[in-house]
Amino acid sequence: MTAFDLYSIGHSNMTAERFLAMLGAAGVDAVADVRSIPASRFCPWFSAKNLAASLAGQGIAYLSYGETLGGRPRHPKLYCDGVADYEAMARQPDLAAALTRLAADAARWRLCLLCAEREPLDCHRCLLVARALAARGLAVGHILHDGTVEPHAATERRLLELAGDDSDLFAPGQHEHLAAAYRRRARAVAYRIKPDRSTTNRTTTK
After folding, report:
1. Residue 46 counted as domain residue
2. Is 22 a member of any domain?
3. Is 157 among the domain residues?
4. What's 7-29 look like in SS3?
5. Distance CA 160, CA 173 (A)
6. Per-residue pLDDT for the chain (206 aa), expressed as one digit of tens each?
7. Contact at 8 Å (CB) between 67 and 38?
8. DSSP of the chain, one letter per residue?
9. What is the pTM for the complete model shown?
10. What CATH number corresponds to the domain at position 16?
11. Side-chain half-sphere exposure of 162, counting CA atoms within 13 A
């Protein structure tokens, strides 16, 4: 029996063979793609159509969740100063409904969340999705690129260390410290809206 209810992984630039081997080592039989744009220009084997085909060849289901659990929200109110606001996103009914559906899929399959970033702490799959799942009582394991699986609680301890806080994760008042660390990290790594160059040029030439 696995110690985790579901996993997460970031494909980065790894080969298709290594990616499939890592999923196989974890016993994964379904991948939940949480990329807003499920495509990769530099690694086309991770584009949705190609990926679904290679997963199917290994008996692994491909589930598309980018529309509801992606890190690039469509609505302007879900950005703060041009940066995706994970806390605002976490309050959205659509996201809550998608998490419920994801939890049901995790009960049916040995599921792995997929996004692009190698490091969990650089990715919304950890800072938004896994955080919300952990709050619902699910145990998430992050598959790292050396093949080890890091429990989400250990990832949160690393998050606190990055924030310069080395206190016990379960110490009184630590919930607020952790929330602040999540907020700072998300602000640093979340998707940013690119400025409209044509608008910028018109403004600067006035």
Report:
1. yes
2. yes
3. yes
4. EEEECCCCCHHHHHHHHHHHCCC
5. 13
6. 458 999 999 999 999 999 999 999 999 999 999 999 999 999 999 999 999 999 999 999 999 999 999 999 999 999 999 999 999 999 999 999 999 999 999 999 999 999 999 999 999 999 999 999 999 999 999 999 999 999 999 999 999 999 887 656 555 567 899 999 999 999 999 999 987 654 444 443 33
7. no
8. --S-SEEEEE-TT--HHHHHHHHHHHT--EEEE--SS---SS-GGGSHHHHHHHHHTTT-EEEE-HHHH-SS-SSGGGEETTEE-HHHHHT-HHHHHHHHHHHHHHHHS-EEEEES-SSGGGSHIIIIIIHHHHHTT--EEEE-TTS-EEEHHHHHHHHHHHTT--S-TTSTTHHHHHHHHHHHHHHHHS-BPPP-HHHHHHHHT-
9. 0.90
10. 3.90.190
11. 17
Q: Which amino acid is at 133?
A: L
What is the spatial distance between Cα 162 and Cα 140, in angstroms, rounded to a whole number?
A: 20
Q: Quote the domain boundaries for residue 151.
A: 6-195
Cα gap 142→149, rounded to integer Å: 5
Task: Establish if 94 belongs to a structural domain.
Answer: yes
CA distances from 23 to 29, 58, 157, 164, 200 (A): 8, 10, 25, 33, 45
- Cα 86 → chain centroid: 11
Question: Using H for helix, E for strand and C for coil, what is the string for 56-77?
Answer: HCCCCEEEECHHHHCCCCCCHH
Domain total in the chain: 1
Which token pair is 162? 């990055």
